[in-house]
Amino acid sequence: MDILRSIGRKRAVSASGGLEGQVGFLLRLAQEASFAAFARRTGEAALRPGRYAILSLVGAHPGISQTALGQAAGRDKSTLTPALADLEKRGLLRRDRVAGDRRSYALRLTPAGRAMLTRLAAHAAAHDRDLDALVGEEARDAVLAALRRIAGGWGES
Amino acid sequence: MDILRSIGRKRAVSASGGLEGQVGFLLRLAQEASFAAFARRTGEAALRPGRYAILSLVGAHPGISQTALGQAAGRDKSTLTPALADLEKRGLLRRDRVAGDRRSYALRLTPAGRAMLTRLAAHAAAHDRDLDALVGEEARDAVLAALRRIAGGWGES
DNA sequence: TATTGTTATACTCTATAACTATA
DNA sequence: TATAGTTATAGAGTATAACAATA
């Protein structure tokens, strides 16, 4: 509930001011609203966006190293250390020593981690259906494609 | 340059993992990429997203109070105190005592603040043209409309 | 020398709660 | 009592740099 209280309380409902046409601001508001809605949906099971991203990425890439995970998540490796320790402490993932290279760890979800991810994925699916309802089913794919384009392409140059 | 260094260095280029289909994650990546591109464009003149939002909102609503500004920006009023002090120190805005109510301040841009906003708005326009190039001119309006819908509607229930 | 992960440190942004000065 | 703004405090998230262990 902590999560619910801290996010999405006050929002810029109609943040007029020449600003609504600006992509970055809109993206920020949209992201916050989307997360707040997701957190409301998942309730107690909620994981902050960062943790959820880690769980998803590890779930999709079992055995991934911390460095590779950091790159995939767009964060420095040093950022991951406490986050991974937290997820490990909660019993959601394991860090196994790698045979070939004793410097690195192979990250994997525990059964509890997989269960959590499954549960959250169900919520995410419902959440995505809300998106359809909100923007229309045809527009939805276009919007996601655009976001992907922005996320990937705009970083380049 | 500080700003440029701190943002948009490492990105999740192809953050596969069942996660790319998830709106929230995409929104986060898109926002960061968009801001990084904007910061790259504005260079020295860069203002962090929060400051920029304040400047835009005050520019559009001269005389707005801090509490009202906080609501418009979706942030608690206590958050604004240091941000406004900073903008005031930089000579970009003024906080004038209000005649009728001596508790509150009326926020206004200084000439320097207006100039800064104008300059940034020009960059923002160029930035928006990049968006057109990235997602196509027709899709652009649909995308912005969708984001507005998400930001506004999804917060509701 | 280079790489993996950790630690030390610092900075930004955010929130809540308690405070003041007004209303 | 209620509101506008400030201050004190705390927490999350992020980064850079230096480090130890290993390659």
UniProtKB/TrEMBL annotation, chains A, B:
It comes from the Bacteria. One of its GO terms (molecular function) is DNA-binding transcription factor activity. InterPro entries: HTH_MarR-typ, MarR/SlyA-like, WH-like_DNA-bd_sf, WH_DNA-bd_sf. GO terms for biological process: response to stress. Residues 20-152 form the HTH marR-type domain. SMART domains: HTH_MARR (SM00347). SUPFAM superfamilies: Winged helix' DNA-binding domain. This is MarR family transcriptional regulator.
